[in-house]
Amino acid sequence: MTVTGEFGDIDNGHIDPKIYTDQAIYERELEQVFGRSWLFLAHDSQLPKRGSFVQTYMGEDPVLVVRQGDGSVKAFLNQCRHRGMRICRSDEGTNKTFTCSYHGWAYDLEGNLINVPMEDRAYRKEIDKSRWGAVKVRVEEYKGFYFGTWSEDVPEFTDYLGDMAFYFDAVVGRWDNGLELVPMTSKWVIDCNWKFASEQSASDMYHVPFSHASARMALTDKPEEWPMRWGDAPPGRQFSGNGHGSGSVWLPTLGIPDLVSGQDYVDWLVSNQAEVFRNIGEERALKVYAHNTIFPNFSWLGPNATMRVWHPRGPGQVEVWSWTYVPKDAPQNIKADIRRGVQRTFGPAGSFETDDGENWTEVQQVLKGWKARQSKLNAQMGLGHEERDVHGLPGLSNDVFSETAARGFYRRWADLMAGLSWAEIRDQDAARERQETILPKEVQEV
Q1: Mind listing the domains of the chain with CATH numbers?
Q2: Which of 3, 40, 189, 386 reaches 20 to 30 Å from 430, CA-CA?
Q3: Nearest to 7 by CA among 431, 411, 427
Q4: Which GO MF term does the entry hold, naming one (predicted)?
């Protein structure tokens, strides 16, 4: 079943560049993609006690995520129902209530309207406060991670993940006591479409040997240890499913020399690898860790311990929110090593981060041209060579140097943009799976 039409022939690897530049398309995806998908909101470690809150975004809608008195987490639109002002101006903190600074309407931790100034005089006691609470978000928790959606139609989060749960668990399930986010959110703006960043994180290992070669060599006096040179990169696979994507080259051992966080981190990792292998299995620990995206805009990089959300800010701009994640039980010196490694590589001024941002902004700049926007873009790498449930990895996969996950990302995006219900999308996915070109099961081991 081929997705063709206004966005290109995605199943055959043709993408129309206007999806990165057109304002009308952007407005539609705020409703159809960000309004109908599960979006990352917060992690347990960001909400330590009753009344703890963080302000985030679902698309361009500001949202408050709040720890309740019973320990649960709820979320609601950060908008007063009187004249639309934010009811909280802080990025994070601890509150008992949220009060709009415009006219003083106050809301409780669940977003219910609890106080209207001069209610007796201004409204003659005729306002029904139960009808004017903040708009609620549907929230689900997965292993300490909270995701939200505006949609009642979208499947439960575990069904939405599908086979991606195997790949997500490879990072969130490694350690007995889980992960925590370092309590500092880095935020910066890149002048490019959000899909460049999200799709690359799902699919693109192809850029690594070239785009990041100079940065990698700058971090070491042994450039020959760079394992991603053209032609001799280690074997690896790329997964695609439900719009999500994951891709990694395979490691011979967890104790490979680390040019990012230092030898102390490597030694600690080796000394604790039995815990990792017990929790997720040795094979998964060595095969699943690198590039990952949960559709549409939550990504993480395993080697560099960074998680981020790509918040859209118009067709030509994205606001990056980035966190360092660490094993909760790791010693403080190891957590500090990991944090410094992220700052050097994928922080706002990190050597690899600036490589990626330069690529994306340059593409966006080129697409200002009239003729450039008429040229279809090629996403055909590995087309027709997908395999299913091979090499101990569930779902549809391909060689790590392919664009299987990119095509899957844009297929899901196009399905939602077409206004298909999630039931219709499920039926289309089943039809696509029946029509897949699957290579013979006698797969040669890489």
Answers
A1: 39-142 (2.102.10.10), 161-435 (3.90.380.10)
A2: 40
A3: 411
A4: iron ion binding
Q: Which of 14, 82, 103, 391 is catalytic?
A: 103
356 is catalytic: yes
pLDDT recorded at residue 321 = 98
- What does the alpha-carbon distance between residue 179 and residue 324 come to, in Å, rounded to a whole number? 10
Residues 356-369: tens digit of each pLDDT = 889 999 999 999 99
User: Can you tell me the distance from the alpha carbon of 107 to that of 97, in angstroms, rounded to the nearest whole number?
Assistant: 6
Residue 232 is among the residues annotated as catalytic for this protein = no
User: β-pairing, 244-249 with 291-294?
Assistant: antiparallel
| pLDDT score for 8 | 81
β pairing state of 186-190 and 318-327: antiparallel
For a pLDDT cut of 90, what percent of the chain falls above it? 77
Tell whether the model's pLDDT for residue 44 goes beyond 70. yes
Residue with tokens 């549809």: 396
pLDDT for residue 395:
96
* For range 295-315, the mean pLDDT: 95
Cα 408 from Cα 247, distance rounded (Å): 13
What tokens appear for 187 in the block? 């935020």
Which of 176, 207, 267, 427 is an active site residue?
207
Among candidate residues 44, 108, 356, 415, the one labeled active-site is: 356
Active site residue 244: no
Phi-psi region of 268 (alpha: psi -120 to 50; beta: other; left: phi over 0): alpha
User: Quick check: is 385 catalytic?
Assistant: no
Q: What is the pLDDT of residue 445?
A: 38
Give the residue among 193, 190, 196, 189 at the shortest CA–CA distance from 316. Answer: 193
Cα–Cα nearest to 193, from 35, 17, 331: 17
Report which of 416, 443, 13 is spatially closest to residue 243, judged by C-alpha positions. 416
* pTM of structure: 0.94
Give the active site residue among 108, 163, 204, 415.
204
Catalytic one among 212, 258, 264, 429? 212
- Per-residue pLDDT tens digits for 124-176: 989 999 999 999 999 999 999 999 999 999 999 999 999 999 999 999 999 99
